[in-house]
Amino acid sequence: AQKVTQAQTEISVVEKEDVTLDCVYETRDTTYYLFWYKQPPSGELVFLIRRNSFDEQNEISGRYSWNFQKSTSSFNFTITASQVVDSAVYFCALIDGSSNTGKLIFGQGTTLQVKP
Amino acid sequence: ETGVTQSPTHLIKTRGQQVTLRCSSQSGHNTVSWYQQALGQGPQFIFQYYREEENGRGNFPPRFSGLQFPNYSSELNVNALELDDSALYLCASSPKDRAGADTQYFGPGTRLTVL
Description:
Chain A has strands spanning 3-5, 10-14, 19-21, 24-26, 32-39, 46-52, 59-61, 64-69, 74-79, 88-96, 105-106, 110-115. Chain A is mostly beta strands. In chain B, strands 2, 4, 5, 6, 9, 10 and 11 form a seven-stranded mixed beta sheet that branches. A four-stranded antiparallel beta sheet of chain B has the order 1-3-8-7, with no helix packed on it. Chain B is globular, with a radius of gyration of 13 Å.
């Protein structure tokens, strides 16, 4: 069965600190896709990144970076020099490559609070 | 390019009533998925519609049903509302060019409260 675990329920940092959000996944498929979404207080889920299981290259986009490690089934998300606008709930999600239903499996989410 | 839109924004119903939520997909997207997000939880997959047919379903009872129209917009219908149906209902659209792996783009959601 597929599962996504985000063990950190809430994280609080002071602006300009770096913060890493952890994501551990479980799947039996060899082909799968991992995602991160941001959910600000408005409620809309904002897509941040998609990574397939065959691409273990880390990715950097501005202050955001992602570390994908198949050996530990982890897909962690780091925000460098955090800002108040980064405050939101962040979700990690998984789709199996064998799925034809588009069913995203979400973790419980990590609430990030960035204080000025 | 217009993103995913949902209506209404908020809705209050009483137990036993029926509700219809609406979603317009992002331009160029032909697939719509619906999710239920209870307070403090991650979204849970309800079902997906592709080419006007249900393409997959999560663990939700038959009183949750949907439709997709030729313009790819979609409706979620919930009959016999229960208190536990109170949640944020999210719609997502995607361009289905291959099975299961498309990035889903979400709308702002409809907040349903059942009293």
